[in-house]
Write a structure and sequence with these properties.
The complex is a heterodimer of chains A (115) and B (116). With 115 residues, chain A is mainly beta. Chain A has 1 helix and 11 strands; from the N terminus they run βββββββββαββ. Classes of the chains: A mainly beta (115), B mainly beta (116).
Chain lengths: 115, 116
């Protein structure tokens, strides 16, 4: 089975902290994505990456950055966490040109609370 | 930009009944893909069904089928013989593959409850 693993299921951080959310996939997927999920807003794309060291902004990149040093790992970074970044964060991956055929494979999400 | 609209935030249905979830989308592209994802309380997003826009035949997967109306830009999901395990959030999603981009654009989701 394809697996996308997010390092933490629940996370509580303080305002102003630098926060790292980690995502690892084990199926050699080229594409990796970070979404944010909020009630009534659905999933919104923060950043995505098609290859190592490559990244592109999604629809809501403000306050976030990403890192992809290895193909299997895609990290989301909150440079200075704020309470409005309290949310569920979902990581996903797919083969290049495979997303249309197979959709994405998602991780189980990290529920981040910033206090 | 593409948008996906799910106008019903919440629905409930009795076990064994049939329920239809609505979804509309907006795009100027001619070739694209549509998806329904299910997110149970475990939070794991699961692909339920996909439809290729250039195929006129509606996709089916066991108890799940879609009614794809390309001209109306409508993509509804029908769940037959509803089961308790169908209780979940359901998201409609759109993918435009022009230019190699494979970003999924999601609707706001709909909470489905199947009652015993």
């Amino acid at each position: 089975d394809v697996k996308v693993t997010q390092s933490s299921r629940y996370l509580v951080k303080r305002t102003g902290e630098k926060v790292f959310l980690e995502c690892v996939q084990d199926m050699d997927h080229e594409n990796m994505f970070w979404y944010r999920q909020d009630p009534g807003l659905g999933l919104r794309l923060i950043y995505f990456s098609y290859d190592v060291k490559m990244k592109e902004k999604g629809d809501i990149p403000e306050g976030y950055s990403v890192s992809r040093e290895k193909k299997e790992r895609f990290s989301l970074i909150l440079e200075s966490a704020s309470t409005n970044q309290t949310s569920m964060y979902l990581c996903a991956s797919s083969f290049y040109s495979g997303g249309a055929k197979d959709g994405y494979t998602f991780g189980s999400g990290t529920r981040l609370t910033v206090v | 930009a593409q948008t996906v609209t799910q106008s019903q935030p919440e629905m409930s249905v009795q076990e064994a009944e049939t329920v239809t979830l609505s979804c509309t989308y907006d795009t100027s592209e001619s070739n694209y893909y549509l998806f329904w994802y299910k997110q149970p309380p475990s939070r794991q997003m699961i692909l339920v069904i996909r439809q290729e826009a250039y195929k006129q035949q509606n996709a089916t997967e066991n108890r799940f089928s879609v009614n794809f109306q390309k001209a109306a830009k409508s993509f509804s999901l029908k769940i037959s013989d509803s089961q308790l395990g169908d209780t979940a959030m359901y998201f409609c999603a759109f993918m435009n593959t022009q230019g190699g981009s494979e970003k999924l654009v999601f609707g706001k989701g709909m909470k489905l409850t199947v009652n015993p």
